[in-house]
Design brief:
With about 300 residues, the chain is an alpha+beta fold. It has seven helices and 16 strands. A hairpin with a 7-residue loop joins β11 (about 190) and β12. It is elongated. The model has no long low-confidence stretch (mean pLDDT about 90). InterPro entries: PsdUridine_synth_cat_dom_sf (IPR020103), PsdUridine_synth_RluC/D (IPR006225), PsdUridine_synth_RsuA/RluA (IPR006145), RluA_PseudoU_synthase (IPR050188). Responsible for synthesis of pseudouridine from uracil.
Length: about 300
């Protein structure tokens, strides 16, 4: 469910013209509620909140909703250059660089995270929205990170994540020549009791499924294009290491150290339905220069 018609933002309000299907009803308030829930697909939690706070109103034939209320960022703005891949009133997709965490592990740390940088971007652009990331990437993994710019988008995108409707495609350069028979890795992942920061394949762990979509085989390495059905911590790194093909540079999981200085993993594509319009969006994140050079090196060795 989504809204296919035209709309315009006016400050905190989103304004629509639903047409005679609603304006001709005897009880427009009740008709608007059914339409918002059943046709537009507004989350019921948000609908109840807007009704309670008088955030739904008619002006002539136009229906307006408070979908863009001013909110605190929730994190201190700290400037860092951002590579914005996509942005509209509901969503922001940022290409995360290597060596940057998505959010602070320690609130007292002065490390600049992606969330700090997004808050600074919002501040500079005059956007008053809470910084809400929908998914995460490991500190040394590059690629797109999706943010919701309002509560409507957050509720819809969180639901899409739970339903596994947000597709993330990664590129991984691994050790060894991966056989054509390795298509899906379905092995549970749990914490490694001998190392607090590590994960491992464990029968008592959480279900974890990784799909290998395609591959390019080089003399001593392989480039894999991988999608996640689940999103466990270090999932790609743990699964491929367990199968005997650790990521290059991933010394934590048995990969050999390389000049890259990190694991050879990049989020290439992010595919999701727009939380309001339902438009299918596919966001491509360009490869970082260091990973491009590494690929070239092994492809021509």
């Amino acid at each position: 469910m989504s809204y296919q018609g035209s709309w315009v933002r006016r400050g905190e309000w989103l304004e629509m013209t639903p047409g005679k299907a609603l304006t001709g009803q005897a009880d427009r308030e009740e008709a608007a509620g059914r339409w918002l829930l059943d046709t537009v697909g507004m989350p019921e939690k948000l609908y109840r909140k807007l009704r309670q706070e008088q955030g739904i109103r008619w002006r002539g034939d136009r229906l307006s909703l408070v979908l863009f209320p001013y909110r605190e960022y929730g994190i201190e703005p700290r400037w860092h250059e951002l590579d914005v891949l996509y942005e509209d009133e509901f969503c922001l997709v940022v290409n995360k660089p290597a060596g940057m965490s998505v959010h602070p592990a320690d609130p007292a740390s002065r490390e600049i995270t992606l969330n700090h940088a997004v808050a600074a971007y919002y501040e500079t652009a005059g956007i008053r929205a809470a910084v809400r990331h929908i998914h995460r990437l490991d500190k040394d993994t590059t690629g797109p990170v999706l943010y919701a710019k309002n509560e409507y988008a957050q509720l819809k995108l969180d639901e899409a994540m739970r339903k596994k409707e947000i597709v993330r495609i990664y590129a991984a350069i691994v050790q060894g020549r991966v056989g054509d028979d390795l298509k899906t890795i379905d092995l549970p992942i749990g914490k490694d009791r001998h190392h607090s920061g590590r994960r491992r394949v464990s029968l008592t762990g959480q279900p974890a499924i990784t799909h290998i979509i395609s591959s390019e085989i080089y003399p001593s390495t392989s480039l894999l294009h991988v999608s996640l059905e689940t999103g466990r911590t270090h999932q790609i790194r743990v699964h491929l290491s367990h199968m005997g093909h650790p990521l290059l540079g991933d010394t934590m999981y048995g990969g050999r150290a390389i000049r890259l200085g990190r694991q050879a993993l990049h989020g290439e594509r992010l595919h999701f339905s727009h939380p309001f319009t339902g438009e299918e969006l596919e966001i491509h994140a360009p490869w970082p220069e260091d990973l491009t050079a590494l690929r070239r090196q092994f492809a021509h060795e």
